[in-house]
Amino acid sequence: MADIKNIIIIGKVGSGKSALANALSNSDEFKEETVDKEFESEKIKYRVIDAVGLGDIKLTKEKLLEKFEEEIGTYIDEDVSQIFLTIEGKFSESEKSLNEFLWLNEYLFDNKVLDYTTIIRTNFPNFRNKENCEKDIKELINFFNDNGKENYAELNEKVLKKEKIVHVDNPPFNENLRKKSNKKLLDYLKKCSDGEPYRSNLSKWLTEKYPENERENKTVLDISGQKLKGRLNLKGFANLRRLNCAGNQLTSMDLSGCKKLVELNCADNKFASLNFLKSVSSDNLLEQLNISNCCSLKGDLQSLKNLTKLETLFITNTNLDGDLE
């Protein structure tokens, strides 16, 4: 069991995420930016993380993914006990943010996030009334059961029908309601405390094949064609010089610990952007890069500007444009 339980709060901009984080941690430290805070309840240690808001019309999906990786990537690479998905008000107003959440499920959580997701109905005035809460749950299930909402089938089965829903109200100036919401949330978390936390299949595979205490001496790593999915964190490979991870279904990588990397072949994967190259240190030694056949790649080549020693670039069959000038 992890020493600390990570709780990530995800939801639409303005859906009460920060107020929820404050109520949960019994603090006022959460405003609009991503913040994390540790606290303890009944000898159980928690860390609550308020993630970047969904549904921002100014952000493309690729930019949203980039922000999530920058702000909560570290926590995703660790064990995650719960995802709290905030929904406020009318369900129809949350559809854009829900679609983004389900897209992030594929690109950050290898399609497993719903197994660890609880919907939090924020700003729900009658949250202490069991009958009103049950009525709201039924309406939520019916809404997502409507024709044309097949993409919510898994959400219905894994979250709604299992009634993994908590109703709260966290007005900032009503200490009494905040305390009651806090108790309801902590009681729920305690009930979930014995469950297995989320850890990606890729993280488990990498730990099994390459234990952390054996990584430092690796200079060449070939994990091509292993059907690996999701985010690859190469923590501990401090002396790695050549990496071949081509022919998988990787959606992102953290290369911040690979300061001696000279050759990188990550062709034929599912990267949505080149944001993972920002994790490469400014004094990197990378000379050869192959990102060919990454058909989901979009954007321009500006992310390569920090690769000052780059001599060879393979870039066929992508949707990238522009140049490095």
Automatic annotation (TrEMBL):
GO MF annotation: an example: GTP binding
State what protein this is by name.
9416_t:CDS:1
Question: Could you confirm whether the keyword Kinase appears in this record?
Answer: no
- Pfam families linked to this entry: AIG1, LRR_4
Which top-rank group of organisms is this from?
Eukaryota
| Keywords per UniProt | Leucine-rich repeat, Nucleotide-binding, Repeat
AIG1-type G domain location, by residue? 5-209
Q: Which InterPro entries match?
A: G_AIG1 (IPR006703), Leu-rich_rpt_4 (IPR025875), LRR_dom_sf (IPR032675), P-loop_NTPase (IPR027417)
